[in-house]
Write a structure and sequence with these properties.
The structure is a homotetramer of 408-residue chains. Chain A has 408 residues and is α+β, with helices and mostly antiparallel strands. Chain A has 2 domains: 152 residues, Four Helix Bundle (Hemerythrin (Met), subunit A); 232 residues, paralog of FGE (formylglycine-generating enzyme), CATH 3.90.1580.10. Chain A is 33% helix and 12% strand. The first copy, chain A, contains 9 helices and 12 strands. In chain A, strands 10-9-8-11 form a 4-stranded mixed sheet. Chains in contact: A-B, A-D, B-C, C-D. Chains A and B meet through β3, α7, α8 and β8 of A and β3, α7, α8 and β10 of B. The structure holds fe (iii) ion (4 copies). One fe (iii) ion binds next to α5 of chain A. Chains A, B, C, D: One of its GO terms (biological process) is ergothioneine biosynthetic process. Chains A, B, C, D: Pathway: Amino-acid biosynthesis; ergothioneine biosynthesis. Chains A, B, C, D: This is Ergothioneine biosynthesis protein EgtB.
């Protein structure tokens, strides 16, 4: 096994703990809505992933750290056994935070052992699986930011994750790039890591179209609100309108008006709304209605992918230590995940991974929409042009944003 | 206005009443689940469509037949005003059945007048709208069959819509046709009628693939059940598995086992299950799981469309007066709507119709899947190769079937 | 068997049909909320009661009219077999109205036969059971009025059950009668008919108290509303406040404000609110909050019973053919059922009837409150001083009213 | 102010913290069902009670410890302001456990100051309110035991609150005491502390009856189960039967069968079921069905009160440090709260306390049933013969037991 992989393992595993460092012990336990998970659970689950799919799979006569953890920390792998119901992850006071960190330490030690002494005949298979495990852990790092934010939001004391004064910048002006389309390749091809849902590379026909140069701003979204956007059914998808009414949506998640002034809850505090910054935390329904109101549409995932292929992977990622999108930044990569007009489905000839790993992505290909490009809570080395993120059209707690597109 | 259109109007309007002829007065009122509507409501709603979008739109100083009907019989046109909640259509004991038929007669008379005396400058617009209204009414004729079937199913007395002995035929053997794919045109182009969601015609790339020669049968589906299909999570989409468990699904809708013998509820009675006949009334979730179990997949909508374009529009439709699919018939058109692996979304450059008519199709382009080809409850002249039907992945009361496909 | 009983049977059975005479066929089917039942079901259920508990019980080798009716028309007698779920009574389009009337006619004929030719050794048992069946049918006659009213209310066309101009009278002034209390007898004793829940007679201690001379009026209740009664939590029981908020109550059921004028929906039409008439259709929660706001309390059931024992059984009942309470009438009997501050529980040494008849009353002795005195929809010969009606504290569709009481 | 009261204050306040001593930090946060509250919340709420109703009320220009706590720690006092929704108490990760203990310390200091330096003119009012606050805190001590038990139960690791081997004793034989009844006094009279709902003392008539000499045992309850008690609708109240089916009850809460052996979850571990020990954690519905199956009934609250009046207040309380009921103990006081057949309603001439304190008890007098006598989690000095505890008929997480009664 290469030392590089072992070092990468240490680095990424360490990052998960570092993300939780600002938390009080009490914060580790919360599950504010069924979609979020307690930080403690995330820390245990990603560890369970290594124990189950590396140690159990590749170590002879492996003895589990603690047998019950297979039930507690299994997320959704039906082929691995039954699991704590998702809605009840917040009920796990035990194992304690200390015990979960002890679990992490023990598994890290065993993993170090595996990485050092693996049978050469298995080295490649192990390396591939470890790489998957590390990407998996990075996904949960994103979830940690998202979930911590939501947990804090539900607390009337509005705790601050990382006190920080955000810079105020001007928004760049929105321009349109015309793109030719044609019969193009989409999806991942190559030897480096990509999820199964990015494969195989395949042909797709794109019509000529235009892409906006930056994300839509809070100011632009506020104009939609003030123009009655949340009251005009004709702007909305039928399911979106129903959802909006049922949940009383009047703004994106995390907005709040006090004494005529708009505020936004961020991981850096409850701040006056920055009109120049990208609008964040809208559902697909809201993004779609906003685009219709704007006289535009949302881009297809292949349209965005082809733009991303042309660009260096730079932007506003977690290494900025700023966990809220900013005006005036390059926004194709990072900043906010961009809603696309593409439902999340299988590419032609899609093959899920073998065995339990096949449950990772394929079984979610229904009722969700693709988002592209990463966000300010994405690790910089976790994104690719072909990366497909996906959420339900009503989800809002993820760091989602809106890039407009239009037909030529 | 052409006499042909007036005659077509009379023919199609008459058919709706004919479909309801076997009903008892009591049957007109039922809404067995929120998805179905009472026959009485269908009869009123399609009439309201003509009154609202033809008479109101084209007759000067038009006086509504009865003002409250705009509330009662509006289905989902937010731009036309508020409406009786969908879930409460079954609470309308008034207007009575007699009053609804009187409403139909009155509007038919006014429509005859409009068709005869329309201002020539408006003739074309009126003809286009009437044609839309007639296609709309034909859609509701399908719904009448579907809804009556479900209403009757919920009644422990199991009423029979049309007593009839169904022929027992052998199933043809399943063969596979290899199809080349390539860069093809999809969608409707031309002057004859098509819904906005079938337009515009556009290019789509298809990989080489194979299509099954006939629909999957009850016998084949029973093998899936007996192989534990409803108990094996790994065969299912995550949302489908959740739904299956929550609703306790163990078979398609309308199947029932008594004393070890399988039965199926049909519009012609509660009959022993015909193993050679196409399996009907599965959800997308079940169709998808069955296809995975079979080692195949469901076809894309463009794959089916290209097959349909090659064939004459013949098959098992309502003119057969048999409202249940049969073995041994041509099944590309008619018989059962075929689930596709394509979410229902907008074609490139899709433009909804102007005004309220834009609410007809576009706003449903989220969370639903396309079905193709028509069914035995479809009027023979209501189907086209480009016709896109759509339902939620959990819906089962529509006449849906399964055609397998696979990659080459 | 006495001819008197046979004649009574005919009279009461006929009354049920007469109550339904103003209905359209379409009205027979409706179940507007889970608490109500379709008129057609009531007509069938009371008939099933005679078939099951008289014909099945006392006729040798009795052949049921139709076996499935035992499932369809059983209300809640677990000992008699399974039953159509209560919430799905509105889904019975079959049997049709005609078939239900045919069922009634057939059972009436068989009952006539039983009453004429009963074995003398069984005559007394049969007479007792028939008497119970007739009181049962009278209870359902009340339910018919209540349920028809609610069904009509949910229809935007607001049908009128019986067109009639209600007289406008002055309210009598409210005076207080001081009553001594002491160690008194409560409950029924004697040979004539009473339900098991009225027995046995037993001692109860009452403190001195005062009873209001008439029911509280719409005008008085409006003052409560205008004083913020529905916004002041301190006036409400905790469960009531929760319920009020969850359901958005701001007035009694059937009130509606249009252009600043209050209206009330009645079986005689949608009428301007008569401020002098008794307030009707409040829940226990509202009655209790109103009493607290008034500085009074609701009476105990024994307090009302002792007042009722002193009075002749006269008042506003169904023979008035006015199905809405009026000002200026004697209101101890009839007019509106009066909420009491007494939960519905068993009297000391209470014994439910033997067998299935034991399910009639006893199993409901939890979570409900007693109402006393009958209402304008009660048959005049159906009420007694000891009669205990009971509803859940949130129920509002029954004809309930408020009589205030206070401690001395 | 007497030093005795100050010392009592310290003792009882200290006990709350002592109860939480065995908890991990993680355990302080859990709310396993809406009825339970997190231990952290209990500790804050009882402190808020002293801050709000003593310090705010009696200290001039009092500055709140932290203004937001009035929202977070208000339970249900509508007159004091709005509050964190009950179902969301588990979402409070902040204040942290440390902050809550700091809050307790600060308020204790201020309370000590108040108790020492109170204006003599207010001393009596303050003493009365402090006494109420201490009884309030003792109630929450019971809730702490109940809630911790339920929280632990929901965790698959089944944490143990206090490891301890429970003694195994024989059950005493069940005998019946005949009691004469008559016109008796019920309720509290005197100068010492009692809640408003125990007052005023008033007359009540009791029939002669018999009371069981001890609580019903697990063995007796198991016989009920094995006789089909949970499958026989005729034994149950209608609401109870519905609830049982909906929630799938087959045993009391905390029972579990593994490999044919019954176990019970206790605060001392997951133990084999002790057949001689009193059956605990049944709902009213189950207690009532069991009594009916036994051919007996549950006692009235006045029947139990009169028995309790004759006995010294001794029994199995918290000072035993055993938090699970035992066989062979005196059980009239302590051990388990006994369900009565009496709905929780106001005594004649009941007057709630003035102001916000009036919300303490009165507004819950609907839909609940009275339990009597205290339990093994009740502080020995917290119980009286007239003490009325109350729970909803479906509640099971409280330490409830069954004493049978019967008519003579
Ligand atoms: Fe995961
Ligand atoms: Fe329609
Ligand atoms: Fe009945
Ligand atoms: Fe409290």
């Amino acid at each position: 096994m290469t030392a590089a992989l072992a070092s990468e393992y240490q680095r990424i595993r360490h990052t998960s703990a570092a993300i939780c460092a600002p938390l009080a012990r009490d914060d580790y336990q919360l599950q504010s809505i069924v979609e979020t998970s307690p930080p403690k659970w995330h820390l245990g689950h990603v560890t369970w992933f290594f124990e189950t799919f590396l140690l159990q799979a590749f170590v002879k006569n492996y003895q589990p750290f603690r047998a019950e953890y297979n039930y507690l920390f299994n997320s959704y792998y039906q082929t691995v056994g039954s699991m704590q119901p998702r809605a009840e992850r917040g009920l796990m006071s035990r194992p304690t935070v200390e015990e979960v960190y002890a679990y992490r330490a023990a598994i890290d030690e065993r993993m170090a052992d595996l990485l050092t002494h693996a049978d050469p005949s298995q080295a490649q298979a192990i390396a591939a699986r470890v790489t998957l495990g590390l990407h998996h852990e990075q996904q949960h790092q994103e979830l940690l930011y998202m979930d911590i934010k939501h947990n804090f939001w539900r607390n009337p004391l509005r705790p601050i994750y990382l006190p920080k004064t955000l810079p105020v910048r001007e928004a760049t002006s929105l321009t349109w790039e015309t793109r030719a389309g044609g019969l193009l390749e989409s999806g991942f091809e190559g030897d480096s890591f990509a999820y199964d849902n990015e494969r195989p590379q395949h042909k797709v026909w794109l019509e000529p179209h235009r892409l906006a140069s930056r994300l839509s701003t809070n100011g632009e979204y506020l104009a939609f609100i003030e123009d009655g956007g949340y009251q005009r059914a004709e702007l909305w998808l039928a399911d979106g309108w129903y959802h909006r009414k049922q949940h009383g949506w009047q703004t994106p998640l995390y907005w709040e008006q006090r004494d005529g002034q708009w505020y936004e809850f961020t991981l850096h505090g409850f701040e006056p709304l920055d009109l120049a910054a990208p609008v964040a935390h809208t559902s697909y329904y809201e993004a779609d209605a906003f685009a219709r109101w704007s006289g535009n549409r949302l881009p297809l995932e292949a349209e965005l992918e082809h733009k991303l292929r042309e660009l260096p992977i730079t932007g506003h990622f977690t290494n900025s230590n700023t966990f809220h999108p900013q005006a005036g930044t390059e926004q194709h990569y990072g900043s906010l995940w961009e809603w696309t007009a593409s439902p999340y489905t299988a590419y032609p000839r899609f093959q899920p991974l073998e065995g339990s790993m096949g449950e990772y992505n394929g079984k979610f290909m229904c009722n969700q929409w693709v988002l592209r490009g990463g966000a300010c809570i994405t690790p910089a080395d976790h994104i690719r042009p072909t990366y497909r993120n996906f959420f339900y059209p009503h989800d809002r707690w993820q760091f989602s944003g809106i890039r407009l597109a239009e037909d030529v």
